[in-house]
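User: Could you go from structure to sequence for me? I need the amino acid at each position, not a summary. Structure tokens:
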């Protein structure tokens, strides 16, 4: 048994099932009525599919069957949901309890059996309706902190196994008289011909006293908002239930966070504003629908949230944004958007490009001018051209266009050039400045560019660069233009460092980045790594899938970053252990644990082993505490016992810990 102290109280049988919700379900725990997260909050690349109950930082609170039903499924994982139980209710709904410290004894026995069968901690199984049946209010498990995160109970309600819905629908509502808070509003130009405040970038405004400062726009734009709710007596930022966008008194868009289909979980990147998220502006939710988005949150008509200055007509328009929480408390913010009759930037050529929804790093082109690609149109910003003020011209070779740039603030010039989707190669951007007395200055920038068509599998190999990008079918929601540039080398890397952009393009699925070696095969300690802009230059290992006898190493990725190949030659470090070598103990089931850490590639949990007296044991790994641990299931005989941990990282480096102890 677990050594965790468990409080047991009487449950069903004496006729008491505890407090019921308005729909007749029992609350899953009595640990607290404090919600620390609500339904459909944003998590990286997914939605929070349930509600989180505070367990006051502790473990071992009882979890109750919310209604009569049976255990449909259990899963035990080191990471993620940890120990999780799916209770199939008799009416077809499913209740999910996650991060449990343990299951009810009879289920725990079954888990033990499965673990012994498999020889490892991570197991999962479905059960028939006859195996583990519970009545409403019976204890089925205990709260914990297994898997990711601090101690709490993560609880979900689902219709069928893959269709989570908002538990507030079933009356899982806590005391709440407070209205949500609208913090910021954002306006995004939705294609390369549209503008906000005379530019191609998203503009963010603070909301104060229910309003935000006016913003001008031209073309097609979309509003997003950052809002949070607070429940009575707590300061946890939680989510809301419903959003409305009202333009000039007309309800144009509704987001109602009622339920979603797990197949479309990654559409969270389209429901929220992924581009802002990648720039550090968290939790902005769109009040318009991106065309590929298949979530069922939206009404009254999917395209209604997009504002078009040409449709609305020039002049001021009143935008009202309304947020409602699950208890019906609401808040409205107003915003005046000024529709322009003309764009202020010279128009991109032709009919307008396809929607790429992308932007390149401003810094990828260096000092004198920068190139960003926004929705397939290059946005060029030139500066520091003192004395060259009479005219600035832009030439982009692939696009084959020449534009006069317009003044942009003080000492800055801006221009834009459409980029063809079918181009692949080096594109030269040239800014030509003409001085007052006829002098001419020319500054060049070259970028490797490639267009990628949605729904087409494509490879982009740069042989002399040794890097390859493979986009499979289904990885793109939008056509896009990608750029690649070799940037400053890193002494830690054994390959050049490449900045692959746009770093903020929302991909629909995984794609591959591969490094080709020209000389000999990559060493076995080599791995493809990325460096996220927001992580202070730290490299993170992704994978080392070896192809072509080790001449290629590849990794599946979900976003564009700085990529390079790094060597991991440092084995895991095993730190403090619960029992020192030669320790004596009176405990017959002593907890055997050691801190195990690995830099770069990380622990390979499948290749790491733990044995006691020569027998493989069922150990678990706590990622938050970097702890590998095992507690004997049965009493150990008196005498000397030996335990050994062999910790292995993902490229095969290993460290061994060997200890003995005596049970007195
Ligand atoms: Zn949760």
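Assistant: Here is the amino acid at each position, in order:
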């Amino acid at each position: 048994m677990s050594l965790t102290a468990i409080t047991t109280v009487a449950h069903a049988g004496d006729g008491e099932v505890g407090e019921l919700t308005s729909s007749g379900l029992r609350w899953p725990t009595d640990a607290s009525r404090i919600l620390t997260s609500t339904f459909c909050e944003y998590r990286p690349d997914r939605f929070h599919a349930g509600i989180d109950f505070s367990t006051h930082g502790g473990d071992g609170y009882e979890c109750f069957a919310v209604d009569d039903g049976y255990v449909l499924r259990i899963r035990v994982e080191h990471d993620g949901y940890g120990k999780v139980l799916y209770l199939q209710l008799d009416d077809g709904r499913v209740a999910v309890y996650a991060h449990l410290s343990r299951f009810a004894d009879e289920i725990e026995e079954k888990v033990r059996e499965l673990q012994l069968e498999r020889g490892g901690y991570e197991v999962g199984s479905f059960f028939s309706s006859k195996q583990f049946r519970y009545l409403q209010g019976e204890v089925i498990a205990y709260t914990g902190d297994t898997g990711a995160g601090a101690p709490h109970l993560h609880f979900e309600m689902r219709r069928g196994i893959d269709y989570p819905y908002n538990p507030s629908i079933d009356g899982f509502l806590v005391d709440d008289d407070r209205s949500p808070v609208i913090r910021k509003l954002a306006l995004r130009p939705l294609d390369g011909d549209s503008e906000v405040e005379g530019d191609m970038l998203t503009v963010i405004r603070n909301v104060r006293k229910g309003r935000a400062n006016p913003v001008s726009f031209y073309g097609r734009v979309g509003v997003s908002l950052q809002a949070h709710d607070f429940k009575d007596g707590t300061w946890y930022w939680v989510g809301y239930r419903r959003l409305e966008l009202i333009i000039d008194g007309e309800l144009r868009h509704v987001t109602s966070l009622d339920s979603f289909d797990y197949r479309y979980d990654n559409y969270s990147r389209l429901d929220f504003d992924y581009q802002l998220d990648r720039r550090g502006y968290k939790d902005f939710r769109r009040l318009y629908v991106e065309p590929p988005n298949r979530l069922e949150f939206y009404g009254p008509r999917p395209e209604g949230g997009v504002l078009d200055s040409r449709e609305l007509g020039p002049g001021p328009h009143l935008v009202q944004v309304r947020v409602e929480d699950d208890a019906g408390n609401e808040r409205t913010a107003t915003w005046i958007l000024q529709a322009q009759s003309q764009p202020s930037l010279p128009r991109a050529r032709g009919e307008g490009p396809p929607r790429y929804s992308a932007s390149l790093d401003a810094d990828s082109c260096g000092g004198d001018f920068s190139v960003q690609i926004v929705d397939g149109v290059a946005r060029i910003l030139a500066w520091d051209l003192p004395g060259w003020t009479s005219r600035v011209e832009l030439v982009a070779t692939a696009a084959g266009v020449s534009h006069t740039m317009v003044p942009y603030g003080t000492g800055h010039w801006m221009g834009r050039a459409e980029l063809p989707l079918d181009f692949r190669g080096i594109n030269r951007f040239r800014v030509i400045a003409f001085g007052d007395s006829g002098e001419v200055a020319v500054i060049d920038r070259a970028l490797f560019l490639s267009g990628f068509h949605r729904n087409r599998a494509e490879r982009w190999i740069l042989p002399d660069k040794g890097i390859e990008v493979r986009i499979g079918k289904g990885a793109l929601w939008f056509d896009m233009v990608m750029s690649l540039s070799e940037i400053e080398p890193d002494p830690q890397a054994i390959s050049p460092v490449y900045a692959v952009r746009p770093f903020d393009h929302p991909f629909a699925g995984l794609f591959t980045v591969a490094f080709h070696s020209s000389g000999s095969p990559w060493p076995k300690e080599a791995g493809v790594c990325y460096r996220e802009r927001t992580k202070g230059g730290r490299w993170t290992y992704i994978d080392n899938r070896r192809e072509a006898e080790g001449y290629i190493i590849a990794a599946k990725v979900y976003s564009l970053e700085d990529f390079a190949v790094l060597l991991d030659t440092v084995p895991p470090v095993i730190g403090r252990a619960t029992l020192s070598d030669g320790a004596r103990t009176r405990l017959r089931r002593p907890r055997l644990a050691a801190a195990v850490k690995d830099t770069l590639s990380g622990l390979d949990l499948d290749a790491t082993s733990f044995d006691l007296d020569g027998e493989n044991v069922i150990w678990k790994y706590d990622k938050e505490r970097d702890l590998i641990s095992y507690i004997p299931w049965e009493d150990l005989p008196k005498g000397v016992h030996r335990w050994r941990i062999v910790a292995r990282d993902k490229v095969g480096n290993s460290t061994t810990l060997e200890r003995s102890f005596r049970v007195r």
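One structural detail worth keeping in mind: The longest helix spans residues 105-118.
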